[in-house]
Amino acid sequence: MHLAELAPALLQWVFVIAVLVLAAWEQPGARRLKRFSSSAARLAMARSGIVVWWLLTLAALALAWPLDLFHLPPARSGLGWLWDSSWARALATAVLLLYFGLALAPALQCRFHPRLRLKYAAAVNYLHFLLPVSAQERRWWLLLSLTAGVCEELMFRGFLLHFLTGQMAGGLSLHLAGAWLLISLAFGLGHAYQGVAGVLRTALAGLMFGLLTLLSGSLLLPMLLHVLVDAAVLWVYHPQQDHPQAAARLIAGCDPRQAHAQEEMPAA
């Protein structure tokens, strides 16, 4: 095989390895935020993440050209149980409706009953080091949610799905089902900074986004729901209104585990 024929394959492998390395590179930054989190540090991490993910997305589109990464690969081996059974598709659809309904329900409840934020904020306590506090952070969170929804879906359920199923010169030749499972695991491990429970939660989310891609044949719905699920945090977590003293400490900078120490409950 000539070098000109090997070059695309080598570039694709280098890119995949670079993505994995960059995912690992983010972990130390998240660990530092767990020890000391401030508005400036969270904004810096959000901005750098946005830039890096859009650059990776542009690189993925260039390396995959002329493949259409926004639609499912034509080879659909290993999923006959899903394609050949209307019952299986109906069950998969019901599972997706239940999963995404439960994922978005807290935000909808808090939108109409703001005091419920006090209950749901405790459920995301493990992410306080990362979540937006100030008005400026909340604006950047919207852009970060858009970035995650578009770029992560195109990278994991687009580029990697095509790469692992033999649609690219340098890719593997896994069955679609195997690629779906492997990508979901990689998606979970990419969120290792959230701990073991976070890895399991995001791996499950990866399975659900992947299943939605398989059923719809496109990345449009996964991207839309990914953006909504991430942006929904803004309705669930609003410490400047619910815990102003803790919010002030988180903006100035503190150990996020101690931010709510001696916090006064908001007036009824």
List the helices and strands and how they pair.
Elements: H1 3-35, H2 39-64, H3 80-83, H4 86-112, H5 117-123, H6 135-164, H7 176-189, H8 195-216, H9 220-231, H10 233-236, H11 239-242, H12 244-252
Helix pairs in contact: 1-2, 2-6, 4-8, 6-7, 6-9, 7-8, 8-9
Explain what the structure shows.
The protein is mostly helical and 268 residues long. 72% of the residues lie in helices and 0% in strands. It has 12 helices and no strands. α6 (135-164) runs antiparallel to α7 (176-189), α6 (135-164) runs antiparallel to α9 and α8 packs antiparallel against α9. The chain starts with a helix and ends in a 16-residue tail after the last helix. The model is unreliable at 264-268 (pLDDT under 50).
Structural key phrases:
mainly alpha; 12 helices; 72% helix; 268 residues
Give a quick summary of the entry.
With 268 residues, this protein is mainly α. 72% of the residues lie in helices and 0% in strands. It has helices spanning 3-35, 39-64, 80-83, 86-112, 117-123, 135-164, 176-189, 195-216, 220-231, 233-236, 239-242, 244-252.
Taking the sheet with the most strands, its summary is:
none
- First-residue to last-residue Cα separation: 74 Å
What portion of residues belong to β-strands? Answer: under 5%
Structural category: mainly alpha
Nearest-integer average pLDDT: 87
The topology string of helices and strands comes to HHHHHHHHHHHH
What coarse outline follows from CA principal-axis ratios? globular
Give the total of beta strands.
Answer: 0
Number of helices: 12
* Uncertain stretches: 264-268
Helix coverage percent of residues?
Answer: over 70%
Radius of gyration: 20 Å
